[in-house]
Amino acid sequence: MSITPKEVARQKNQEKYIFLNGAMCIKRLQDCHKAVKDPTAVERANLLNMAKLSIKGLIESALSFGRTLDSDYPPLQQFFVVMEHCLKHGLKVRKSFLSYNKTIWGPLELVEKLYPEAEEISASVRDLPGLKTPLGRARAWLRLALMQKKMADYLRCLIIQRDLLSEFYEYHALMMEEEGAVIVGLLVGLNVIDANLCVKGEDLDSQVGVIDFSMYLKNDDDVGSKERNVQISAILDQKNYVEELNRQLNSTVSSLHARVDSLEKSNTKLIEELAIAKNNIIKLQEENHQLRSENALILMKTQHHLEATKVDVEAELQTYKHSRQGLDEMYNEARRQLREESQLRQDIENELMVQVSMKHEIELAMKLLEKDIHEKQDTLIGLRQQLDEVKAINMEMYQKLQVSEDAMKEKNEIIGRLEDKTNQITATMKQLEQRLQQAEKAQMEAENEDEKFKQECKNKSESLQKEISQKEKQLIQLETDLKIEKEWRQALEDDFQKEKKTVSHLRIETQQITSLKKEFLELQDKNQQLKKLCQDQEAALQELAYKLSEAKLKIEDIKEANKALQGQVWLKDKEATHCKLCETEFSLSKRKDLDEDMHQKIASEMNLSETAFIRKLHTKDDFTKSSCFGLRWFTPTNEVPLCGHATLAAAAVLFNIQKNMNSSLTFVTLSGELKARQEKDHIVLDLPLYSAYPQEFQEVEELVKTAVGDMVVQDLCYSPDTKKLLVRLSDTYERSVLEKLKVNAQDLVPAEKTGKVKGLILTLKGSLSEKHKNYDFYSRYFAPWNGVLEDPVTGSAHTVLGSYWSQHLGKTEMLACQCSQRGGEMKISLQSDGRVDIAGQVVIVLTGNLTF
Predict the structure, then answer these.
(1) 596-657: which CATH number, 3.40.50.1000, 3.10.310.10, 3.20.20.70, 3.30.930.10?
(2) Mind listing the pLDDT tens digit for each residue in 492-514?
(3) pLDDT score at 11
(4) How far apart are alpha carbons 234 and 237 in whole angstroms?
(5) Residue 722 contacts residue 693 (beta carbons within 8 Å)
(6) Helix (H) or strand (E) holding 612
(7) CATH number of this structure's domain 50-190, picked from the four choices 3.40.50.150, 1.10.340.30, 1.20.58.900, 3.40.80.10
């Protein structure tokens, strides 16, 4: 398709005219917004501004770089995201049979009824095989309409028929107001663009529709302005924080929807069971009526039979008056028949009583079912009220976003403080360089010790070979002695048959032979034990030689491996084909690993603070013999980079359940290599040590007051490596004050405004007046940001607490107590290599299997 220069000029003039009209409408709408501060009007104005920026940037970039655009062009992708937000504004929520439905596909389907030419793209969208959701069909419809250059015409038909749109949109929606007409006018300018989009190959159902404000906030003139860049980064941080809160609110709303659906399903089931119970009651009533009618018939028959017997008795009395014997027999027969009839009547009355009691029980069950149904209806009403509260919270978050704009000035002051902190960080970097030089010296000393250890191993191996040769010689001598003893025993048996007189002498000799046999068996056992010991020592020597050959390489690669592991994420099983440390190929046929989603689902189902997953690193690894494994931790909501007590539990399972023969285990994690070893009744973890730096109180004032109220705070520090805030209470408080402190962990998330805190540590100095043990410090830990309200015992928190209290107490060996409801005791030992040993006891209380 060719376009003449005149057409290009005419289209540019048309664009200028469209943007002038759009600017006049936007100015008029902004004046209205200043007069009336309506949140919905503000939303419409913001969406209109974003649409104007998106369309203008798309046209300018298309004219400068080429008219034909494809699906991967970022301005085009942002244009579709903005149009999706404009069409979603003010959309009514429709309740379907199973759940609530809110989609833009409904009004877009209406276009084919108003504009016959739109039937073609609607039919094409319905025929696409990869689209499963109404939102995906709406996205495909927008792309096809842009390729046809009819998007403005189609949407113009919609906004003209506002009486039909009122079925889908609220009265204050963007498509129902003047802003919708302005956006349709702006869309006319897109007719100069040729779009070549492949709708079939895109995953339109699962795309995330988030507007990238960074594409519109920065201009060429503002590149050199530092203040402008700082303001832009602050606004983007606030935008990301609000989006994260909205995602959390959406997840809570979806969970509430799921609970409402489950309650509705259970309500329908109860109604069905109630109908079945009513039918059973009707059947029982009918059977009761039949039994009563049968009982009445039986009573009538018995009465007729009694009357007949009376007549027979009178006849027999007249015939047998003169015979006393005949009278006695007749009397006994009548008496027997009367007893039988009375017994039959008693049985029928008992059955009638049983039926009446069953009827009472069924009526009581009916009342209980009705009561349960009323309770379910009350819970449904409560859930709907919670949904309304969530909507109110969303509005409050929008108002807080406006307040955050006023806080921009305060953040400029914080930037100055951050510059001071950068100077402090440079000083700490110099200290770290000095520590690095010390570590290199320690490395040289370790290499010298390795050479000495090699020489000792060689000497020991030579001495063991000499002992083995001596034992083999002794074994050969014992075998020859055994042959001689067998021949001698055969000769003695022959002599025993021939010479009966020497029985006593032979018995003495046989006793000696049995004792020698026992000694020989003992020697055989010792020989087997020596062989096993020799094999074990040979295997140990081979393992030592292999480890010593790799020791130098591992020492050099440890730092690079730790740096590479930090900040990375676990790959999917399809992508993880080789180990990044040793480049050994993984075998998925010999192991059954869980999917990424299954890790999180299992952790959510367990609903514990953290759930640990141990995995083999190589195909030849064995839980009983290997010493290196992979380890991951998941809370009920997400994966965490470090967890101490879950690592302790993993080591306890390998040592106690799997009977691992190694004295020390190594776990490859997101925090680098962690080691665990057994010492008597404790398991010692080798964890990294993280420092905490002073934190300004004003920046986290609301969070601290939400946690401790009006209690006196003696010190406040923050660990950037673990994103944990350390709050030290006054030394005047005792342990009981920390234990009785009631912290509503759910209120901590909205109270944290900085976005950098993911865990809160409350700590207190130990007291010498304790009754049982003298603990150096106490602590409690809260992490609602990771789905953990209060963690009972936290190893990762003590990697920060150990560094802090070691500086303030002047100790490297400390005893700590975490004062949660369950509680826990830990022994902390700081090492010279910048790491910390945390020791604790483990009790296995439950084992089982998961069935998928």
Answers:
(1) 3.10.310.10
(2) 777 767 777 766 766 787 777 87
(3) 45
(4) 5
(5) no
(6) strand 611-616
(7) 1.20.58.900
Question: CA of 245: how far to CAs of 197, 704, 825, 829, in Å?
Answer: 34, 20, 36, 40
Residue among 753, 757, 699 nearest 725 (CA): 757
610 catalytic residue (yes or no): yes
φ and ψ at residue 66, rounded to 5 degrees: 135, 150
SS3 category, 666: strand
Separation CA 559–CA 564 (nearest Å): 8
Task: Provide φ and ψ at 828, rounded to 5°.
Answer: -115, 130
Amino acid at 18: I
Assigned token pair, 561: 């491996």
Which pLDDT value is given to residue 3?
Answer: 41
Mind listing the pLDDT tens digit for each residue in 237-282? 666 666 666 766 777 777 777 777 778 787 788 888 888 878 888 8
In the structure encoding, which two tokens stand for residue 487, read together? Answer: 């021949």
* Tokens linked to 604: 């959510």
Check the CA dihedral 833-835-841-844 and report its sign: negative
pLDDT value at 662 more than 70: yes
Listed range (169-178, 184-193, 228-237, 661-670) with the worst mean pLDDT: 228-237
Mean pLDDT of 324-342: 72
**CB count in 10 Å sphere of residue 795:** 24
Cα separation of 750 and 755, whole Å? 10
What is the distance between the alpha carbons of residues 457 and 537, in angstroms, rounded to a whole number? 11
Closest CA to 187 of 80, 110, 71: 80
- Cβ neighbourhood burial of 108 (10 Å; 0-12, 13-18, 19+): buried
In this prediction, residue 286 has a pLDDT band, given cuts at 50, 70 and 90, of confident
> What values do phi and psi take at 73, rounded to 5?
-75, 115
Q: How far apart are CA 512 and CA 431, in angstroms?
A: 79
Residues 6+ apart with CB under 8 A from 51: 82, 83, 86, 183, 186
Task: State yes or no: pLDDT of 5 exceeds 50.
Answer: no
* Tokens of residue 723, six digits: 């994103």
> Per-domain residue ranges for the chain?
50-190, 232-412, 596-657, 680-840
Tokens of 229: 């860049």
b/e sequence 738-777, b meaning 16+ C-beta within 10 Å = beebebebeebeebbbeeebebbbbbbbbeeeeeeeebbb
Question: Taking residues 343-367, what's their average pLDDT?
Answer: 78
CATH code, residues 680-840: 3.10.310.10
Angstrom distance (rounded) from CA 339 to CA 146? 99
- Residue with token string 């055969």: 490
Say which residue the tokens 């106490």 belong to: 778
Bridge partner residues of 762 (DSSP):
727, 780
The residue to which tokens 């696409």 are assigned: 128
Specify the pLDDT at position 576. 61
Q: For residue 759, what is the enclosing H or E element?
A: strand 759-765
Instruction: Note whether 723 and 757 are within 8 A (CB).
Output: yes
Amino acid at 420: D
Chain centroid, CA 591 distance in Å: 23
Report CA-CA distances (Å) from 170 to 89, 94, 110, 393, 399. 9, 12, 17, 20, 21
Scan for tokens 């007893």, then name that residue. Answer: 339
CA distances from 649 to 384, 617, 671, 684, 795 (A): 41, 19, 17, 11, 11
Residue 655 gets which letter from DSSP? Answer: I
The catalytic position among 43, 109, 179, 610 is 610
Nearest to 759, CA basis, from 770, 768, 748: 748
Task: Count CB-CB contacts under 10 A for residue 468.
Answer: 15
Same CATH topology for 50-190 and 680-840: the answer is: no
**E strand or H helix that includes residue 763:** strand 759-765
Give the global pTM: 0.35
- Average pLDDT, stretch 755-772? 83
State residue 97's pLDDT score.
41
